[in-house]
Description:
12 helices, 11 strands, TRAP transporter substrate-binding protein, DctP_fam
Amino acid sequence: MKYKLIACLLSASFAGLTAASAQAATTLRFAHFFPAASAVHQDLYQAWARSVEEASGGELRVQLFPSGTLAKAESIYEATANGIADVGSTVQGYTAGRFPLSQVVELPGVAPTAETGACVLQTLYDEGHLDQEYADSRPLFMFTTGPGFLHTKETVVETPEDLQGLRIRRPTALVGDMLTDMGAIPVGMPAPDIYTAMQRGVIDGVSLPWEGVNTFRLNELTSQHTQVPFYSLGLIVTMNQRAYDRLSPEQQAVIDEHSGMAWAENAGEVFGRLDREGKEKAVEAGHTILEIDNPLENADWKQPLKNGIEQYLIGLEERGLPGRKVYEAALAARDACTTKAG
């Protein structure tokens, strides 16, 4: 009886320690819009969460909310800044006009690959060009998709004239303006809504990187692909400042270690790999893929693309923003990042 009592007391003691440890752990709610089954969720966001938990010895736990379950894609940044989410990841351009200098990375030619784009956008932030755009949150790291191409259900797009009258989903207003200038009818919607819209005939095609085509299962609906890289999409992982301030110094150090260029590069590598895999699936399915080499020098495409760049920079100047300075810094970062990667 005595031994049974001791065993019960020890068991209760260990249970109490476990409960106390669980109670002591801080849980961070992490919102993003990618599907839970996607490689972006698993290979980037889950990988970050596991690494944070391990580095903190279990003092930090990360609860992921994929597929816009905590906040919709276009609301994730504000939800994070306001504390609905502790950490959030979304596309800056989903909040129209909110991050105009960050969106310089979307301009044609700035981010030729996801790997380079991540390095460029993080460099712009690290150099202080984007500070004012994120005064209400604590950015952890930034990155980009690979180049966005054109993917249509039936129409082969060889020149901008082939876009006349086509309803094309655009990710951001900047991309929408360029599509409008080419004669298309841009339709704005977050990526998770595209499949249903295309299935119902609401849109004729999309502008997306290969990663997005695969992630959102659009290879099932599109068969014509034009590789004209007229944008790349910027993304951010950011944290609520109050949530960060509530952490212990040791916990803050863990978050700091999981921020900056190293994690930007991790994200770039994930998106770069997924671009290659997405294109491979289109090839395997026997789809038509038209590649436009050097579009900024291509006789058919260079003028509308250069017009899009100039119009965006003029728009920034009209708002009193140093758009051209940031654009030049982005091009310099692109060259440095490309050399670094090589």
